[in-house]
Protein backbone atom coordinates (compact mmCIF):
# COMPACT_ATOMS: atom_id res chain seq x y z
CA UNK A 1 0.00 0.00 0.00
CA UNK A 2 0.94 3.55 0.58
CA UNK A 3 4.04 4.56 2.49
CA UNK A 4 3.09 5.54 6.00
CA UNK A 5 3.84 8.79 7.71
CA UNK A 6 6.39 7.21 10.04
CA UNK A 7 8.47 6.07 7.10
CA UNK A 8 9.69 9.46 6.02
CA UNK A 9 10.81 10.19 9.57
CA UNK A 10 13.55 7.59 9.77
CA UNK A 11 14.50 7.49 6.12
CA UNK A 12 17.67 9.45 6.72
CA UNK A 13 18.72 7.37 9.67
CA UNK A 14 17.92 4.23 7.79
CA UNK A 15 20.18 5.23 4.99
CA UNK A 16 23.02 6.36 7.16
CA UNK A 17 23.85 3.21 9.06
CA UNK A 18 24.01 0.76 6.13
CA UNK A 19 26.06 3.36 4.28
CA UNK A 20 28.58 3.38 7.08
CA UNK A 21 28.67 -0.38 7.29
CA UNK A 22 29.13 -0.47 3.54
CA UNK A 23 31.97 2.03 3.58
CA UNK A 24 34.70 -0.57 3.90
CA UNK A 25 33.03 -2.84 1.42
CA UNK A 26 32.40 -0.14 -1.14
CA UNK A 27 35.90 1.24 -1.04
CA UNK A 28 37.79 -2.00 -0.41
CA UNK A 29 38.98 -2.32 -4.03
CA UNK A 30 41.10 0.75 -3.31
CA UNK A 31 43.03 -1.22 -0.71
CA UNK A 32 44.00 -3.86 -3.28
CA UNK A 33 45.06 -1.20 -5.75
CA UNK A 34 47.24 0.51 -3.17
CA UNK A 35 48.78 -2.83 -2.24
CA UNK A 36 49.50 -3.58 -5.90
CA UNK A 37 50.99 -0.12 -6.31
CA UNK A 38 53.28 -0.55 -3.31
CA UNK A 39 54.33 -4.00 -4.44
CA UNK A 40 55.06 -3.01 -8.02
CA UNK A 41 57.21 -0.05 -6.98
CA UNK A 42 58.98 -1.75 -4.06
CA UNK A 43 60.08 -4.66 -6.25
CA UNK A 44 61.27 -2.27 -8.95
CA UNK A 45 58.75 -3.62 -11.46
CA UNK A 46 57.78 0.00 -12.05
CA UNK A 47 60.80 2.32 -11.78
CA UNK A 48 60.52 4.95 -9.08
CA UNK A 49 61.29 7.62 -11.68
CA UNK A 50 57.85 7.03 -13.10
CA UNK A 51 55.83 6.19 -10.01
CA UNK A 52 56.93 6.85 -6.44
CA UNK A 53 56.25 4.24 -3.79
CA UNK A 54 52.88 4.69 -2.14
CA UNK A 55 54.51 4.77 1.28
CA UNK A 56 56.82 7.56 0.09
CA UNK A 57 53.80 9.56 -1.00
CA UNK A 58 52.30 9.21 2.46
CA UNK A 59 55.58 10.24 4.05
CA UNK A 60 55.75 13.28 1.76
CA UNK A 61 52.14 14.15 2.55
CA UNK A 62 52.78 14.05 6.30
CA UNK A 63 56.00 16.07 5.91
CA UNK A 64 54.26 18.77 3.83
CA UNK A 65 51.34 18.81 6.22
CA UNK A 66 53.62 19.36 9.22
CA UNK A 67 55.60 22.08 7.49
CA UNK A 68 52.32 23.87 6.73
CA UNK A 69 53.15 24.01 3.05
CA UNK A 70 50.24 21.84 1.98
CA UNK A 71 47.75 23.67 4.12
CA UNK A 72 48.81 27.06 2.83
CA UNK A 73 48.37 26.05 -0.79
CA UNK A 74 45.15 24.21 -0.02
CA UNK A 75 43.65 27.27 1.65
CA UNK A 76 44.58 29.40 -1.30
CA UNK A 77 42.88 26.95 -3.66
CA UNK A 78 39.84 26.62 -1.43
CA UNK A 79 39.32 30.34 -1.31
CA UNK A 80 39.42 30.61 -5.11
CA UNK A 81 37.14 27.64 -5.47
CA UNK A 82 34.61 28.94 -2.99
CA UNK A 83 34.56 32.47 -4.35
CA UNK A 84 34.39 31.43 -8.01
CA UNK A 85 31.85 28.67 -7.54
CA UNK A 86 29.48 30.51 -5.23
CA UNK A 87 29.47 33.68 -7.33
CA UNK A 88 28.79 31.71 -10.49
CA UNK A 89 25.97 29.81 -8.80
CA UNK A 90 24.37 33.00 -7.47
CA UNK A 91 24.70 34.85 -10.75
CA UNK A 92 23.85 31.83 -12.90
CA UNK A 93 20.62 30.97 -11.09
CA UNK A 94 19.44 34.57 -11.24
CA UNK A 95 20.26 34.89 -14.92
CA UNK A 96 18.76 31.54 -15.87
CA UNK A 97 15.49 32.20 -14.10
CA UNK A 98 15.30 35.77 -15.38
CA UNK A 99 15.80 34.47 -18.92
CA UNK A 100 13.01 31.96 -18.42
CA UNK A 101 10.69 34.70 -17.20
CA UNK A 102 11.52 37.53 -19.58
CA UNK A 103 11.51 37.02 -23.30
CA UNK A 104 13.74 40.07 -23.91
CA UNK A 105 16.54 38.62 -21.80
CA UNK A 106 16.25 35.26 -23.48
CA UNK A 107 16.51 36.79 -26.95
CA UNK A 108 19.44 38.89 -25.77
CA UNK A 109 21.53 36.17 -24.14
CA UNK A 110 20.62 33.04 -26.03
CA UNK A 111 22.88 33.60 -29.08
CA UNK A 112 25.82 34.34 -26.79
CA UNK A 113 25.20 31.23 -24.72
CA UNK A 114 24.86 29.07 -27.81
CA UNK A 115 28.18 30.36 -29.04
CA UNK A 116 29.99 29.94 -25.74
CA UNK A 117 28.55 26.56 -24.83
CA UNK A 118 30.94 24.44 -26.94
CA UNK A 119 33.97 26.58 -26.06
CA UNK A 120 36.42 24.66 -23.84
CA UNK A 121 36.45 27.01 -20.87
CA UNK A 122 40.14 26.41 -20.19
CA UNK A 123 40.81 28.48 -23.32
CA UNK A 124 39.76 31.48 -21.24
CA UNK A 125 42.64 31.07 -18.80
CA UNK A 126 45.39 32.89 -20.76
CA UNK A 127 43.26 35.90 -21.58
CA UNK A 128 42.03 36.24 -18.01
CA UNK A 129 45.61 36.09 -16.76
CA UNK A 130 46.48 38.92 -19.14
CA UNK A 131 43.52 40.97 -17.90
CA UNK A 132 43.49 40.17 -14.22
CA UNK A 133 47.03 39.13 -13.36
CA UNK A 134 48.38 35.98 -11.79
CA UNK A 135 46.77 36.32 -8.36
CA UNK A 136 43.46 35.13 -6.94
CA UNK A 137 41.29 37.23 -9.20
CA UNK A 138 42.11 35.59 -12.52
CA UNK A 139 41.45 32.11 -11.06
CA UNK A 140 38.17 33.18 -9.52
CA UNK A 141 37.14 34.70 -12.84
CA UNK A 142 38.02 31.52 -14.73
CA UNK A 143 35.90 29.41 -12.38
CA UNK A 144 33.10 31.96 -12.46
CA UNK A 145 32.93 32.04 -16.25
CA UNK A 146 33.52 28.34 -16.70
CA UNK A 147 30.80 27.28 -14.29
CA UNK A 148 28.15 29.77 -15.13
CA UNK A 149 26.87 28.12 -18.30
CA UNK A 150 25.67 24.84 -16.81
CA UNK A 151 24.08 26.79 -13.97
CA UNK A 152 22.27 29.20 -16.31
CA UNK A 153 21.11 26.42 -18.60
CA UNK A 154 19.81 24.20 -15.81
CA UNK A 155 18.07 27.10 -14.05
CA UNK A 156 16.51 28.20 -17.31
CA UNK A 157 15.30 24.71 -18.16
CA UNK A 158 14.10 24.15 -14.61
CA UNK A 159 12.11 27.35 -14.53
CA UNK A 160 10.65 26.75 -17.99
CA UNK A 161 9.78 23.19 -17.15
CA UNK A 162 7.58 23.92 -14.15
CA UNK A 163 4.25 22.19 -14.79
CA UNK A 164 1.73 24.79 -15.93
CA UNK A 165 -0.93 23.12 -13.84
CA UNK A 166 1.06 23.99 -10.72
CA UNK A 167 1.24 27.60 -11.85
CA UNK A 168 -2.47 27.64 -12.59
CA UNK A 169 -3.28 26.13 -9.22
CA UNK A 170 -1.25 28.81 -7.48
CA UNK A 171 -2.85 31.60 -9.51
CA UNK A 172 -6.32 30.30 -8.72
CA UNK A 173 -5.53 30.14 -5.03
CA UNK A 174 -4.55 33.79 -5.08
CA UNK A 175 -0.78 33.85 -5.65
CA UNK A 176 0.17 37.07 -7.43
CA UNK A 177 2.35 37.07 -10.52
CA UNK A 178 5.30 38.34 -8.51
CA UNK A 179 5.03 35.96 -5.62
CA UNK A 180 4.69 33.12 -8.11
CA UNK A 181 8.46 33.18 -8.55
CA UNK A 182 9.17 32.31 -4.91
CA UNK A 183 6.15 30.16 -4.29
CA UNK A 184 6.20 27.99 -7.37
CA UNK A 185 8.85 28.68 -10.01
CA UNK A 186 11.94 28.44 -7.82
CA UNK A 187 10.86 25.41 -5.77
CA UNK A 188 9.72 23.73 -8.97
CA UNK A 189 13.03 24.44 -10.69
CA UNK A 190 15.20 23.32 -7.77
CA UNK A 191 15.84 19.73 -8.85
CA UNK A 192 17.17 20.92 -12.20
CA UNK A 193 19.13 23.76 -10.66
CA UNK A 194 20.79 21.49 -8.15
CA UNK A 195 21.88 18.94 -10.72
CA UNK A 196 23.26 21.72 -12.93
CA UNK A 197 25.28 23.17 -10.08
CA UNK A 198 26.69 19.74 -9.30
CA UNK A 199 28.04 19.59 -12.81
CA UNK A 200 29.45 23.08 -12.31
CA UNK A 201 31.16 21.92 -9.13
CA UNK A 202 33.07 19.25 -11.03
CA UNK A 203 34.02 21.71 -13.77
CA UNK A 204 35.20 24.24 -11.21
CA UNK A 205 37.92 21.94 -9.87
CA UNK A 206 39.26 21.28 -13.35
CA UNK A 207 39.52 25.00 -14.02
CA UNK A 208 40.96 25.76 -10.61
CA UNK A 209 43.86 23.37 -11.07
CA UNK A 210 44.37 24.32 -14.70
CA UNK A 211 44.56 28.00 -14.00
CA UNK A 212 46.86 27.52 -11.01
CA UNK A 213 49.25 25.47 -13.12
CA UNK A 214 49.48 28.13 -15.78
CA UNK A 215 50.33 31.10 -13.61
CA UNK A 216 50.93 32.19 -10.06
CA UNK A 217 52.82 30.76 -7.14
CA UNK A 218 50.11 29.50 -4.79
CA UNK A 219 47.46 26.82 -4.83
CA UNK A 220 47.49 23.04 -5.06
CA UNK A 221 47.57 23.18 -8.86
CA UNK A 222 50.70 25.29 -8.73
CA UNK A 223 52.21 23.00 -6.10
CA UNK A 224 51.58 19.91 -8.21
CA UNK A 225 53.16 21.45 -11.27
CA UNK A 226 56.08 22.93 -9.34
CA UNK A 227 56.95 19.64 -7.63
CA UNK A 228 56.79 17.70 -10.88
CA UNK A 229 59.17 20.20 -12.47
CA UNK A 230 61.41 19.86 -9.43
CA UNK A 231 61.39 16.09 -9.81
CA UNK A 232 59.75 15.49 -6.41
CA UNK A 233 57.32 12.86 -7.60
CA UNK A 234 56.27 11.76 -4.12
CA UNK A 235 55.47 15.36 -3.18
CA UNK A 236 53.58 15.84 -6.41
CA UNK A 237 51.45 12.79 -5.70
CA UNK A 238 50.81 14.08 -2.20
CA UNK A 239 49.49 17.32 -3.70
CA UNK A 240 47.31 15.39 -6.15
CA UNK A 241 45.95 13.27 -3.30
CA UNK A 242 44.99 16.42 -1.48
CA UNK A 243 43.19 17.73 -4.54
CA UNK A 244 41.35 14.45 -4.98
CA UNK A 245 40.32 14.48 -1.36
CA UNK A 246 39.02 18.05 -1.57
CA UNK A 247 37.06 17.33 -4.73
CA UNK A 248 35.62 14.16 -3.25
CA UNK A 249 34.58 15.85 -0.03
CA UNK A 250 33.06 18.80 -1.88
CA UNK A 251 30.93 16.47 -3.97
CA UNK A 252 29.84 14.37 -0.98
CA UNK A 253 28.91 17.50 0.93
CA UNK A 254 27.03 18.80 -2.05
CA UNK A 255 25.10 15.56 -2.45
CA UNK A 256 24.19 15.58 1.18
CA UNK A 257 22.88 19.15 1.05
CA UNK A 258 21.04 18.38 -2.18
CA UNK A 259 19.29 15.35 -0.67
CA UNK A 260 18.35 17.41 2.30
CA UNK A 261 16.79 20.12 0.15
CA UNK A 262 15.07 17.65 -2.14
CA UNK A 263 13.78 15.44 0.66
CA UNK A 264 10.34 15.64 -0.92
CA UNK A 265 11.55 13.70 -3.94
CA UNK A 266 11.84 10.51 -1.90
CA UNK A 267 9.36 8.11 -3.37
CA UNK A 268 7.20 5.66 -1.50
CA UNK A 269 5.79 2.42 -2.80
CA UNK A 270 2.60 3.83 -4.26
CA UNK B 1 -42.29 27.78 -9.81
CA UNK B 2 -39.20 29.96 -9.87
CA UNK B 3 -36.38 29.10 -12.25
CA UNK B 4 -33.12 28.11 -10.50
CA UNK B 5 -30.51 30.87 -10.53
CA UNK B 6 -27.84 30.68 -13.24
CA UNK B 7 -24.35 30.50 -11.72
CA UNK B 8 -22.18 30.26 -14.84
CA UNK B 9 -23.38 31.56 -18.17
CA UNK B 10 -21.33 30.94 -21.33
CA UNK B 11 -22.51 32.61 -24.50
CA UNK B 12 -20.96 32.05 -27.91
CA UNK B 13 -17.60 31.06 -26.39
CA UNK B 14 -14.88 30.43 -28.90
CA UNK B 15 -11.21 29.67 -28.42
CA UNK B 16 -8.45 29.68 -30.98
CA UNK B 17 -4.93 28.62 -30.13
CA UNK B 18 -1.69 28.46 -32.03
CA UNK B 19 -0.43 24.91 -32.42
CA UNK B 20 3.29 24.14 -31.98
CA UNK B 21 3.61 23.98 -35.76
CA UNK B 22 2.35 27.56 -36.00
CA UNK B 23 -1.14 27.14 -37.42
CA UNK B 24 -4.15 28.49 -35.60
CA UNK B 25 -6.62 25.88 -34.41
CA UNK B 26 -10.23 26.55 -33.57
CA UNK B 27 -10.84 24.52 -30.40
CA UNK B 28 -14.24 25.87 -29.38
CA UNK B 29 -16.80 27.42 -31.65
CA UNK B 30 -19.83 29.05 -30.10
CA UNK B 31 -20.34 27.22 -26.83
CA UNK B 32 -23.60 28.22 -25.13
CA UNK B 33 -24.13 26.77 -21.69
CA UNK B 34 -25.90 27.71 -18.50
CA UNK B 35 -24.92 26.06 -15.26
CA UNK B 36 -27.38 26.54 -12.43
CA UNK B 37 -26.45 27.32 -8.88
CA UNK B 38 -25.57 24.18 -6.88
CA UNK B 39 -25.99 22.06 -9.94
CA UNK B 40 -23.75 19.13 -10.80
CA UNK B 41 -23.15 19.34 -14.52
CA UNK B 42 -20.88 17.03 -16.48
CA UNK B 43 -19.47 17.61 -19.92
CA UNK B 44 -18.67 14.60 -22.07
CA UNK B 45 -17.40 14.47 -25.60
CA UNK B 46 -14.78 12.89 -27.87
CA UNK B 47 -11.09 13.40 -27.10
CA UNK B 48 -9.78 16.74 -28.27
CA UNK B 49 -13.24 18.33 -28.47
CA UNK B 50 -12.13 21.16 -26.20
CA UNK B 51 -13.99 20.25 -23.02
CA UNK B 52 -10.94 20.84 -20.84
CA UNK B 53 -10.22 24.04 -22.72
CA UNK B 54 -13.72 25.21 -21.87
CA UNK B 55 -13.12 24.45 -18.21
CA UNK B 56 -9.85 26.40 -18.21
CA UNK B 57 -11.69 29.36 -19.72
CA UNK B 58 -14.22 29.24 -16.88
CA UNK B 59 -11.31 29.02 -14.43
CA UNK B 60 -9.80 32.08 -16.11
CA UNK B 61 -6.38 30.53 -16.64
CA UNK B 62 -6.74 30.71 -20.42
CA UNK B 63 -7.87 33.75 -22.38
CA UNK B 64 -11.13 33.60 -24.25
CA UNK B 65 -11.04 34.34 -27.99
CA UNK B 66 -14.69 35.25 -28.52
CA UNK B 67 -18.02 35.34 -26.70
CA UNK B 68 -18.29 35.67 -22.94
CA UNK B 69 -18.42 33.75 -19.69
CA UNK B 70 -20.20 35.21 -16.70
CA UNK B 71 -20.36 34.11 -13.12
CA UNK B 72 -23.32 35.59 -11.25
CA UNK B 73 -23.79 37.86 -14.28
CA UNK B 74 -20.28 39.31 -13.85
CA UNK B 75 -17.76 38.65 -16.64
CA UNK B 76 -14.89 36.35 -15.66
CA UNK B 77 -11.50 38.00 -15.85
CA UNK B 78 -8.63 35.83 -14.78
CA UNK B 79 -8.31 33.11 -12.17
CA UNK B 80 -9.66 33.44 -8.65
CA UNK B 81 -10.36 31.37 -5.55
CA UNK B 82 -14.10 31.58 -6.18
CA UNK B 83 -13.60 28.91 -8.87
CA UNK B 84 -11.53 25.96 -7.66
CA UNK B 85 -9.92 23.71 -10.26
CA UNK B 86 -9.07 20.03 -9.77
CA UNK B 87 -6.85 18.34 -12.35
CA UNK B 88 -6.55 14.80 -13.64
CA UNK B 89 -2.92 14.67 -12.56
CA UNK B 90 -3.57 16.38 -9.24
CA UNK B 91 -1.13 19.31 -9.64
CA UNK B 92 -0.03 19.09 -6.02
CA UNK B 93 3.05 21.02 -5.03
CA UNK B 94 5.55 18.17 -4.62
CA UNK B 95 7.75 20.20 -2.26
CA UNK B 96 4.91 20.70 0.19
CA UNK B 97 3.55 18.10 2.56
CA UNK B 98 -0.09 17.06 2.53
CA UNK B 99 -0.94 19.68 5.10
CA UNK B 100 1.25 22.25 3.34
CA UNK B 101 -0.68 21.69 0.14
CA UNK B 102 -4.05 21.91 1.82
CA UNK B 103 -3.08 25.14 3.58
CA UNK B 104 -1.65 26.83 0.48
CA UNK B 105 -4.83 28.60 -0.58
CA UNK B 106 -5.56 29.67 2.98
CA UNK B 107 -2.07 31.14 3.30
CA UNK B 108 -2.62 33.14 0.14
CA UNK B 109 -5.98 34.34 1.44
CA UNK B 110 -4.29 35.59 4.59
CA UNK B 111 -6.07 33.19 6.94
CA UNK B 112 -4.38 33.11 10.35
CA UNK B 113 -2.20 30.15 11.29
CA UNK B 114 -4.44 28.67 14.00
CA UNK B 115 -7.45 28.92 11.73
CA UNK B 116 -5.54 27.31 8.88
CA UNK B 117 -4.51 24.41 11.07
CA UNK B 118 -8.06 24.02 12.31
CA UNK B 119 -9.58 24.01 8.83
CA UNK B 120 -6.91 21.69 7.42
CA UNK B 121 -7.39 19.21 10.26
CA UNK B 122 -11.10 19.09 9.66
CA UNK B 123 -10.67 18.49 5.92
CA UNK B 124 -7.98 15.89 6.43
CA UNK B 125 -10.41 13.97 8.57
CA UNK B 126 -13.18 14.50 6.06
CA UNK B 127 -11.30 13.06 3.09
CA UNK B 128 -9.64 10.28 5.07
CA UNK B 129 -6.04 11.45 5.17
CA UNK B 130 -5.50 11.24 8.91
CA UNK B 131 -1.95 10.21 9.70
CA UNK B 132 -0.63 11.47 6.36
CA UNK B 133 -0.38 15.14 7.29
CA UNK B 134 3.38 15.36 6.97
CA UNK B 135 3.90 13.07 4.01
CA UNK B 136 5.04 14.45 0.67
CA UNK B 137 2.83 13.80 -2.40
CA UNK B 138 5.48 11.57 -4.00
CA UNK B 139 4.84 9.01 -1.30
CA UNK B 140 1.09 8.81 -1.91
CA UNK B 141 -0.97 6.68 -4.26
CA UNK B 142 -3.05 8.31 -7.00
CA UNK B 143 -6.27 8.09 -5.00
CA UNK B 144 -4.63 9.70 -1.97
CA UNK B 145 -3.17 12.45 -4.12
CA UNK B 146 -6.57 13.26 -5.53
CA UNK B 147 -8.00 13.38 -2.01
CA UNK B 148 -5.32 15.90 -1.11
CA UNK B 149 -6.11 17.93 -4.22
CA UNK B 150 -9.80 17.86 -3.37
CA UNK B 151 -9.12 18.90 0.22
CA UNK B 152 -6.82 21.66 -0.99
CA UNK B 153 -9.60 23.00 -3.20
CA UNK B 154 -12.35 22.67 -0.59
CA UNK B 155 -10.10 24.41 1.97
CA UNK B 156 -10.58 27.83 0.40
CA UNK B 157 -14.26 27.12 -0.12
CA UNK B 158 -14.83 28.04 -3.78
CA UNK B 159 -18.39 28.65 -4.97
CA UNK B 160 -17.76 26.72 -8.15
CA UNK B 161 -15.83 23.46 -8.40
CA UNK B 162 -14.26 22.83 -11.79
CA UNK B 163 -13.07 19.26 -12.23
CA UNK B 164 -11.01 18.16 -15.21
CA UNK B 165 -11.31 14.35 -15.44
CA UNK B 166 -10.34 14.17 -11.79
CA UNK B 167 -10.68 10.40 -11.53
CA UNK B 168 -9.31 9.60 -14.98
CA UNK B 169 -5.92 8.53 -13.65
CA UNK B 170 -7.23 6.28 -10.90
CA UNK B 171 -7.82 2.55 -10.88
CA UNK B 172 -11.42 1.33 -11.20
CA UNK B 173 -12.03 0.62 -7.51
CA UNK B 174 -10.56 3.85 -6.26
CA UNK B 175 -12.54 5.61 -8.90
CA UNK B 176 -15.87 4.23 -7.69
CA UNK B 177 -14.98 5.10 -4.13
CA UNK B 178 -13.99 8.64 -5.03
CA UNK B 179 -17.19 9.13 -7.01
CA UNK B 180 -19.26 8.25 -3.98
CA UNK B 181 -17.23 10.49 -1.74
CA UNK B 182 -17.51 13.35 -4.17
CA UNK B 183 -21.29 12.99 -4.25
CA UNK B 184 -21.37 13.00 -0.45
CA UNK B 185 -19.24 16.12 -0.32
CA UNK B 186 -21.31 17.79 -2.97
CA UNK B 187 -24.63 17.15 -1.27
CA UNK B 188 -23.12 18.28 2.01
CA UNK B 189 -21.41 21.47 0.86
CA UNK B 190 -23.78 22.47 -1.95
CA UNK B 191 -21.53 23.78 -4.64
CA UNK B 192 -21.87 24.34 -8.34
CA UNK B 193 -19.81 21.66 -10.08
CA UNK B 194 -18.67 21.44 -13.68
CA UNK B 195 -17.19 17.99 -14.20
CA UNK B 196 -15.30 16.89 -17.30
CA UNK B 197 -15.10 13.18 -18.03
CA UNK B 198 -14.69 10.58 -20.74
CA UNK B 199 -16.77 8.12 -18.80
CA UNK B 200 -20.47 8.33 -19.64
CA UNK B 201 -21.53 6.12 -16.71
CA UNK B 202 -19.58 8.33 -14.35
CA UNK B 203 -21.27 11.39 -15.80
CA UNK B 204 -24.78 9.92 -15.48
CA UNK B 205 -24.11 8.69 -11.97
CA UNK B 206 -22.78 11.99 -10.68
CA UNK B 207 -24.71 14.66 -12.53
CA UNK B 208 -27.97 16.49 -12.55
CA UNK B 209 -27.41 17.20 -16.22
CA UNK B 210 -24.90 16.01 -18.79
CA UNK B 211 -23.81 18.21 -21.68
CA UNK B 212 -22.54 16.39 -24.77
CA UNK B 213 -20.00 18.22 -26.89
CA UNK B 214 -19.37 17.83 -30.60
CA UNK B 215 -16.03 16.90 -32.14
CA UNK B 216 -13.61 19.79 -32.64
CA UNK B 217 -14.38 22.61 -32.93
CA UNK B 218 -16.44 21.93 -29.82
CA UNK B 219 -19.99 23.10 -29.35
CA UNK B 220 -22.71 21.86 -27.03
CA UNK B 221 -24.58 19.23 -28.99
CA UNK B 222 -27.22 18.33 -26.45
CA UNK B 223 -27.94 18.60 -22.77
CA UNK B 224 -29.57 15.62 -21.08
CA UNK B 225 -31.33 15.79 -17.73
CA UNK B 226 -29.97 12.76 -15.91
CA UNK B 227 -31.45 13.25 -12.47
CA UNK B 228 -34.99 14.50 -11.97
CA UNK B 229 -34.92 17.90 -10.24
CA UNK B 230 -35.10 17.52 -6.50
CA UNK B 231 -34.25 13.82 -6.35
CA UNK B 232 -31.38 12.70 -4.18
CA UNK B 233 -28.05 11.66 -5.62
CA UNK B 234 -26.60 8.28 -4.78
CA UNK B 235 -25.81 4.71 -5.69
CA UNK B 236 -29.46 3.69 -5.46
CA UNK B 237 -30.53 4.47 -8.98
CA UNK B 238 -27.50 2.85 -10.63
CA UNK B 239 -28.51 -0.16 -12.74
CA UNK B 240 -32.14 0.94 -12.78
CA UNK B 241 -33.79 0.81 -16.17
CA UNK B 242 -33.80 4.59 -16.28
CA UNK B 243 -30.08 4.86 -15.51
CA UNK B 244 -29.14 2.41 -18.23
CA UNK B 245 -31.33 4.22 -20.74
CA UNK B 246 -29.68 7.54 -19.95
CA UNK B 247 -26.22 6.01 -20.34
CA UNK B 248 -27.19 4.52 -23.68
CA UNK B 249 -28.75 7.73 -24.90
CA UNK B 250 -25.68 9.80 -24.05
CA UNK B 251 -23.25 7.19 -25.26
CA UNK B 252 -24.91 7.08 -28.68
CA UNK B 253 -24.65 10.87 -28.87
CA UNK B 254 -20.94 10.74 -27.99
CA UNK B 255 -20.34 7.84 -30.34
CA UNK B 256 -21.59 9.75 -33.37
CA UNK B 257 -19.06 12.45 -32.56
CA UNK B 258 -16.20 10.03 -31.97
CA UNK B 259 -16.90 8.52 -35.36
CA UNK B 260 -16.77 11.98 -36.96
CA UNK B 261 -13.51 13.00 -35.29
CATH architecture of the domain at 1-48 and 63-73 and 168-261 in chain B: 3-Layer(aba) Sandwich
Corresponding CATH superfamily of the largest domain in chain A: MetI-like
Shape of chain B: globular
Structural class of chain B: alpha/beta
What descriptors fit this protein?
heterodimer; A: 270 residues; mainly alpha; MetI-like fold; 2 domains; 0% strand; elongated; disordered N terminus; B: 261 residues; alpha/beta; Rossmann fold; 6-stranded mixed beta sheet; 4-stranded antiparallel beta sheet; 10 strands; 36% helix; globular
Topology:
The complex is a heterodimer of chains A (270) and B (261).
Chain A lengths: L4 H5 L1 H32 L11 H14 L1 H33 L1 H14 L7 H9 L3 H25 L3 H9 L6 H36 L5 H10 L3 H29 L9
Chain B lengths: L5 E13 L5 E13 L3 E5 L6 H9 L6 E6 L2 E2 L7 E4 L11 H11 L4 H14 L15 H14 L4 E5 L7 H18 L2 E5 L3 H7 L2 E5 L6 E6 L15 H20 L1
Parallel strand pairs in B: 3-8, 3-9, 6-7, 7-8
Antiparallel strand pairs in B: 1-2, 1-4, 4-5, 9-10
Amino acid sequence: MVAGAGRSGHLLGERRSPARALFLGKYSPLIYMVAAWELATATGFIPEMLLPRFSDVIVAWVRMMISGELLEHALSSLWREAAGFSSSVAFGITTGIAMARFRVLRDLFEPLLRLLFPLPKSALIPILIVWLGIGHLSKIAVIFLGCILPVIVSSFNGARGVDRHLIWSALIMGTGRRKLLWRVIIPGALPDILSGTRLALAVSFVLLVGSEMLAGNTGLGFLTYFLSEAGDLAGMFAAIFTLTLLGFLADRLYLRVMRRILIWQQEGQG
Amino acid sequence: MSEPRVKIRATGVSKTYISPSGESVLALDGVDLEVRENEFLSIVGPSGCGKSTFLYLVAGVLDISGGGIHKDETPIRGPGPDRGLVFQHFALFPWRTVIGNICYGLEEQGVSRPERAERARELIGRVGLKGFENVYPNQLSGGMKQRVALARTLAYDPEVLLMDEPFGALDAQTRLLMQEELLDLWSEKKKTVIFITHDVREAVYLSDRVAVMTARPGRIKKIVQTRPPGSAAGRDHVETQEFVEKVNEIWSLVRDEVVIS
